[in-house]
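Limitations
The structure tokens in this dataset are predictions for the assembled complex, not deposited experimental models. Users should treat interface geometry with appropriate caution, especially where small molecules or nucleic acid strands are included. An illustrative entry is reproduced here so readers can see what is and is not provided.
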Amino acid sequence: MLAGGLRKIFMRQFLIIGFIILLAFDTLSQVSFKLAGADTHPSVDLAWIMRVALDKWTYGAILGYVGAFVTWMSLLKHAPVGPAFAATHLHVVTVAVISFFLFGERFSLMQIIGSVFIIAGIFVLALGKTDRQI
Amino acid sequence: MNSIATTLWLLCMFIDALGQMSFKAAATKVTDAEGLERWKEMLSNFWIWIGISCYVFEFFIWMAFLSMVPLAQGVLLSCLNIMTVMIGGRIFFGEKLTGKRIFSASLIAIGVSLVGWGA
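Predicted assembly:
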């Protein structure tokens, strides 16, 4: 019984740490995308693709993608898919916080209300099991 | 958002949904093979290459889009893919739309319109 209790505690910690790592990777990739875009000045030609290939932030974005994919696959083995799915979208919050401080981005009141709607939508999708089907 | 950013965003959402549908099509193909053989079969599947192409293409479109809009706004707008994938799942794989899913998609759609054009 004691072993079972301990396993439960470890599992919970494993999931919490896993979600934090997932969030960190997702945030890293989006911030890197923004910085790579700013570095390389997108244009519709081969020269831009070359600039992207040579930019360090491109590799930050790829590292974030690969890291998030591996973490996600490991988490899916143990976490219920609803909350896990929501966790893959919660980087909208961490990215917004970083954008505020790092890039000085500001939202209008309407945009803040819109963000609340989107986050509420993600949570609704994450909650519980499926209900009546159409 | 200006019209170029809006076009890039819509293109991204479309390619993302197409990529997800392609991977689903590749993954659900019935096969008896296991282990390495299964992977070999998967890699010879037409849809997996469509999916990979979508992701490569999306990588560049997404970067171009983010260079035109604030990062927080762009990332919030990307949540529309929850809705496009849901609709794609319904059309191509007959996945059920539950009341909860429709409610959630509606919240996201309202939110996306406010975040995108409520400046």
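Some entries come with short summary sentences. For this one: The CA atoms of residues 23 and 90 of chain A lie 7 Å apart.
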